[in-house]
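Continuing from the previous page of notes. For each protein in this section, the sequence appears first, followed by its structure tokens. Read the first protein now.
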Amino acid sequence: MSCPELRFCSAPARRRTHFCSVMTRLRTKLLLALLAVSAGLTGATLLVVRGSVRSGVRESLRGDLQSSVRTFELLEGQRQQSLSRSSEFIATLPTVRALMTTRDIPTIQDASVGLLKQSGAELLILADRTGAISAIQTDDKKLNQTQAQKFLEETYRKGDSHDWWIADGILYEVQLQPIEFGSFPAQTTIGILVLGHEINSSVADSFGNVAGSDVVFRSGDTILASTFSAQEKQELSRLRAIPAMSHGSDPVEVQIGSERFLTSGLRLSTVQGISVDLIVLKSLDKATAFLDSLNRLLIGLGIVTLLAGGALGFLIADKFTRPLSHLVSAVKALEGGDYEFPLAKRTTDEVGVVTNAFGNMRTSLKNVQKEQKELESRLRQAHKMEAVGRLAGGVAHDFNNLLTIIRGHSDLMAERPNLDEKQKHDVEQIQKAATRAVGMTRQLLAFSRMQVLQPRIVDLNAIITDMSKMLPRLIGEHIEYSFLAAAQLCLVRADPGQIEQVLMNLAVNARDAMPQGGKLIVKTCNTALDAEAAAKRPAMSSGEYEQISVSDSGCGMDEQTKAHIFEPFFTTKEIGRGTGLGLATVYGIVKQSGGFIWVESSAGRGTTFDIFLPRAKGPVSVVEAERIHRVVERGWGTILIAEDESGVRDLASQALRAAGYTVLEAKDGEEALRAAENHEGQIHLLLTDVVMPKLSGVEIAERLRSKRPEMQVLLMSGYSEYSHGNRQSAGSAMQMLQKPFSLESLTARVRQILQEKKVVVMKDPGREIR
């Protein structure tokens, strides 16, 4: 069986296929974008025009409604005047006066028929002067005498001559006129004449024709008369949301059947607690009916615009997107790691400029990738060196104990008087090897940055001036560095190495905050803070300080970041660029020096760290050189040695006993406490390793000091990272003896402490290195 033929596309063919696909997507996106813009503009135009027209129509209808209400008031005034004249005319007829003087109800009733026809009204009532109805005549016979009597009494009680009555769904507009006998001013009222017009659909139609609106006369939920059909009246009776509005009120939109109206109205009267309203309505749908044709026109224009925009977009895409799509293909190729994808011919237009820039960028990325591999190799080497440094520190710590034993015993052997020349030579070789080993361990500790440091009175300007020689190289040439020193700066008590570490950490942070370059300014000054100024910086106390300000022009920090910057392991840097211990170390060093640190920063405006260290009195400390001559003077006193390394403990005990001291030995902290408790005499000095099982040397010293305050303390350590605790005991300082030490330096240091009882404040020299 033969295998089917396999066909593989070459790389150029795959690129052409990818190029066509990218170009098609680009053209489609551009065309859709143009169509979307055209559709959006068309729709926005339609909505704006429609909204503007609707607003104009509403405003016009609002004016029409107000005009219709005013027209009704005018017509109503004319009807009222006509009704008033008719009632005055009928009331002054001699026959009416004579008729009312007879007080014969049948006669009055018969005569009222002719009077109704003569008045031209739909309602006529004759009543005596007390208001009792004598005769009533209506066209529809729906108003009986009982109802009329109640209405008349209500109107008479209100004192009105004009009123509105409702009887069995019929609305009457009535006018009251007194019938008087005699000549003015000696006239006597002998009766009351009531004339009224019925307000029905024909009256509503007449008013609607004049006002050009639909009209409704309403009492509560009952429609008394309107220009609407019977079915629409039922809809109207359910519309309780149509209030009787005053002039100037905004119209209300209502739905009657399938048609929308804008309404306004007028309160005519209140009859026995029931309101009588006039409602005027304008059809909103009829007024905006022309919008439908306008919408169709705009939609047609929009379609034409979309078609024209699509054709234009296709032409633009075909002409201008070819080089751009080729550039996109090059970008895709670069994403896959292809730095050799051919670029289009370079032109001077915008796409050509971008293509040129992309070509340069691609070349730069290729170089950066090469440099990145080199940097990764260097980084791996740096990590190895860091691990070696920590290993070196640990080895140096243990090796210091061994060197102390070797060096001490070699010194003891050298002191033997019966050594021959060969033995002296052997001891000297051991001492030389031990001395070289001591130098090597100190180099290892310096390499791993774990050497023991001591605080002293220093001049900050001098320290920063020395650091200024190194900081510019540390932060880089793209950052401008300057140091502004105070003319007469006071002294402080601090560890110079720790102050240098503070400046270095802050400089590194400033450098990372200014990747594009900027300014780093270090400034010193004398500062005195009163209570008010200290209150603005929580945790600070008033007093006189020496201030170090480190300011940068970097990206700054927001308030949320500022609240956590001094927390251990908090960092805003990407993984691998920061441990989060730099500022925590700065904070710890400043606090251990008895000072305070404050930060001022805001996003985009840089950062300023202000360090406040308390002033110190006295001359600048000078480090004394190690004594090299032999001290043969005998010592005195009782010494308690606490050391977990038996060789170091035995050596120190032997040397101190040989120097004349009484020695108590303990292999750990608890045994040291028991030895001190069992010893009845005075213990003049505690010689203890800093790191001890169960209890540290500092804890032993503090416990014993509470019971033996006169006891001096000398701490032994060769590895500052293990030097935990505060060596500032209550009321007195603890001194430090660095391992490995010689027997001569041990006895000389012990003798110095016991004879002079001089206290030197030792500060934890341990440093967290970024």
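Done with the first. The second protein uses the same format. Note its length before scrolling.
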Amino acid sequence: MIRVALAGILGRKLRTVLTALAIVLGVAMVSGTFVLTDSIQKAFDFINGEVRAGSDVVVSGKSAFDLSNGGNGSFAPTIPASLLTKLKALPDVETAQGNVSNSSTSIVLDGKAIAFGGAPNLGFSVTGGSPFNPLTLVSGTWPHGDEVVIDSNTASKKHLHVGDVVGVQTLGPVERFRISGTVELGSSSSIGGATLAGFDLATAQRLFQKPGKFDEIALAAKPGVTPERLLSEVKPVLPPEAQARTGAQQAAKDAADTDSFISFLRDFLVAFGGIALFVGSFVIANSLSITIAQRTRELATLRTLGASRRQVLNLIFVEALVMGVLASVTGLFAGLGLAELLFKLFDAVGFTLPNSGIVFATRTVVIALLAGILVTLIASLRPAFRATRVEPIAAVREGATLPPSRFARYRSAGSAVLTILGFAALLVGLFVPHLGTTAVLSYMGLGALLIFIGVSLLSVRAVGPLAWAVAPLARWLLTGLWLVFLFLTPFGWLYQIYYRIHYGAFPTYLDRSSAGPLARDNARRNPQRTASTAAALMIGLALVTLVAVLAAGITQSFRGSVDKIWRNADYAITAQNNFSPIPTSAADAAAKSPVTDAVANVRTGEALAFGSSFFATAVNPAGATMFNLDWQAGSNATLAQLGADGAFTDKDYAKKHGLHLGSKVTLTFTSGAQKTYMIKGIFDPPTGGSPFGSVTISQAAWDAENENPQNLYSFVRVKGGASPQALATLQHSLAAFPNSKVQTRQQFIDNQISGLNSILNVLYVLLALSVIVSLFGIVNTLVLTVFERTREIGMLRAIGMSRPQVRRMIRNESVITALIGGVIGIALGIVLGALLVARVDFIVFSLPVSSLIVFAVMTVVVGILAAIFPARRASRLNVLQALQYE
């Protein structure tokens, strides 16, 4: 039977290839994901290893609690420079060096901050010839005084050379520095989109406002002394605000900060690979079902010759196994190219990732191959068991068909039960309280899986009515697109000229033939086949619609929140990338502008209260006249009356911790300092959120407890109201702060939403993979049905149907099938989106009408593309041979 199976595959090369493409794409996504994330992991490991290569022990500031993200204004405290002398005096210390760094040091060229893909802009102290220096000098010399070294990647991209003068902005206005040299990290310049700026120690301490302080002290042990022994010697002399780790431990700690991100990215991308494979399973099952129906007489002949049901079952399994192995191996290596494309995709949407070489791990090979092969075998189960129902007598019957399963009469009820169970599991995951993250995701994943399977099976009942409903729409849309092509594109005019010369007449502009009704009836002829084909597209469009609904809800919620809270401000000041903190000196410069009436600042950073860390905020008195909050207790005047010990909180945080007016909240800051504040106000944030954290104190109180505070936002009210002249003056006042930008209310909204749009673009591209898989599913079904209807098409050609009409019939059938999947998918996506919105408090439900129209049009485009090859194949059938086809 193995030889028979292989002969069957070789005899149906086209069908096998079209079926296998679905698995190729899904496995490529899984393989590419692991290659991508493993490559990123290798790059980060390389960077962390290079940075700590010369350090046996690293001493750093100790935060009072774990910080979630230093890029949002929270940093571990510094350590006094005097500690360096004590550490150098230890008997087993060979050498020691202190250093400082800053994660928002922008290199400025022509008045603009250089940034690549939202990556960090790193500044640090550097000492040439030091054993702790991880940098390699590519050209020039190490910096002294008003000099800076920059990474060779930035120098190359911006055409900068040794001796050029650039601006540098950190916590103050831009300063001018001469480029003394270019550097690379170790032996590689692949650090993603990060920019590097190195200064001598004194200059760095001044720029970063850390005089007499270090962020870290690196120590090298004397020969023969282990890092562990040196660590035990260092710890007793450390002050309470400092901590020590071996170089390896510090590198591991640095890596841990990126491991969670890489793990999330891997899970995120693998999920889309799983979606593509899930969609591919529908394509495989449908294709095998069609081919088995077409091979009824072949299978019956095998039964007549003595093949048992088990042997027929094994035959189909062997075919599926061979196809799964070949497709999975192809997809495995296609994943290498996909990984490179993913690197470029993330770079294009502003998320540049480090890359020090592609990693193709054994684990990637095993998981990708297993996923592809198992999905193929599972998808072949139903067609395989269906094949065993072929009776030997079918070998001598004309037009013999497979007998229905004894469970066929329960199909509708079973599909409905699956769908109901799916929605039940989804509702449990969304609305049952106190479930862990794993349980929530498990219930939601199971629910979505059951819903998609149930709806795809249940949609058989809807194929007939939907085909009648969408057939006219398909005909109108195809006619409209055809006219647009003919009269509004150069290719259309050329086609008309070619057609006129070749056929002696102009092409038909309006379709008045019977191709449309025939296509509609063809789609309704086998509802199960049409439903299975449409189901693959339905899943992809349901997920795309779900994402669009959530995005529309988030956008609408945010716009509503800004409109509600933005009371009496004319402009907002944010970082160029819209989310990083900005130095307080930028707001101070705006306040000194001659057009400025008032500036309200929102500072941010992490604090600890009630045993949990969170992002706290601070506001200055000017906020009382610029924000409009919905107060449950207190008023806008509260913002100006916080003083040294006042605070306000939001409604949910107050309810969770039993807070009310007069309650006391003790905040622990990163330095370990603790202070108690009295609740003077409680507000109800709008659905889309607010600029304030769970607890907000006064700006003066915040600055007293936090080194180098930074603003998340600053809001400006100008004299006489907003005007082009006022905006130009304010921008001129901030010219020395190129990493900050001034925005109107609408610009502020659009820029804050732009980050969401970048994420959406990534999601749409990833979900497009499942749509492409479904496209191949439609192609495959149409090709197989063309084989199945060869005599029928020959008969239509014999009685006068032209080749263009045959192509039009197949194209209409393809678009009708795609529209059926589109209608069901879009409707299901809206329902799922509404359920998720109902669960998330900060999102309102908003229907993205324009996006849905685009999705509908794209559905038609998918149908047209899917029909190109099958339509050409059908129109080129030889009429006489088709009439004799068995």
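What the second structure shows: The mean pLDDT is 84. Residues 247-294 form the longest helix (48 residues). We return to this in next week's lecture.
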